[in-house]
Amino acid sequence: MMDDAPHIFMDVSRLLSRARNPIPTGIDRVEYEYVHYLLHNEAYRLTFVAFHPVGIIGTLRMQAVRDFLHMMGQVWDGDIALRDRLPRMAQRLLQSVLLSHWTMPRYRGDSVYLLVSHHHLTRPRAIETFLSRHGSLFVPMVHDLIPMEFPEYARPGEPQRHTRRMETVARLAAGVIVPAKAVARSLAPYVKGRPAEGHVHVVTHGLHLQLSQSPDGTPSRLPDDGRPYFVCLGTIEPRKNHLLLLNLWRTMAEEKGKDTPRLILVGRRGWENENVLDMLERCPALQGNVLEYNDLSDPEVVGLLQGSLGLLFPSFSEGFGLPLAEALVLGTPAICSDIPVFHEVAGADATYLDPTDGPAWRGAIDAMVAESLAHRGPARTARMNLFNWPRQVAAGIAVVDETAAFFRSDGRHGS
Fold it and tell me: Per the database entry, which stretches of residues form a coiled coil (predicted)?
């Protein structure tokens, strides 16, 4: 315990807003793990807060957040019976924000407002008011700048919204956490000459601890015919480049028939994906050869990856690439796009290909199938020491403390 450690106002707005979604996204998981770690390791200097849509940020009772987090974890792990209860709990928590905003005393002492999602960065006035009221420093996490760098893959209006988010970060942040060096390079021009310049820190994401339990969670809906398969994990949207794989599988199915390995798509349907959906629903060659799962629990995804020939990840751009990290930890081979962030995650432990080079992908997939048939050996060894969430969150909290210490010594804390 550090006597001079700053108080942490941990924002849980993202988790409250996602209570109706039983399958977490990567950013959902990040906020969950930060909250879980702080509850168990830093509660002595912790206050939970959330943003209310009327434009205010208020506090939440710690026990109420603890109960909510416990139930959310159970829902993500596949407890269907709790799915209807979680949104009601989130609504009660959000309602309590209104009352706490008017009754919460000003905090006296060093404090940091920590926001590890992009949830309300488009509402800078609420953040600025909270910082001013409590004399806090602002440390957000920026996951990526993809909507600004690749607007052609974003939903309409999202590039403009993300620009506003980065303007908020540039103007108000004292320090910033990013998941990869590639994101730090993208962010650098926006914080140049701002308080956060020189205080952008790379903290790699961790992975859900349930990976270490090696669950027998392969979806029962997967045909029980022993047919080998590959997995593509991620929201079905243009940036993920599913169309490359679907075109390859159509050709393979026409050439190989029943000897074609299956392609399993795991992820919800996103936006601007009409071409992909048309192929999934109307291409005869893909029927039975490409399967789509939109609602798998964490244990099912792990079981699916463990039983696969490999992960296919042809994305054009990523802020981190959690599926690739999951494959590494499970010992599952991976073929992925040759982009800088994937090299940061996987090093020499993946096959890198141009995401537009269809023939190269086909060759690598065929080679992986042949290698699997030739070497039916013992189960792959999982490497659980990689991407440990408690260790990574501890590194993120160290950034919070370092930022507070710098501005304290500089005489600008709470100014």
Answer: none
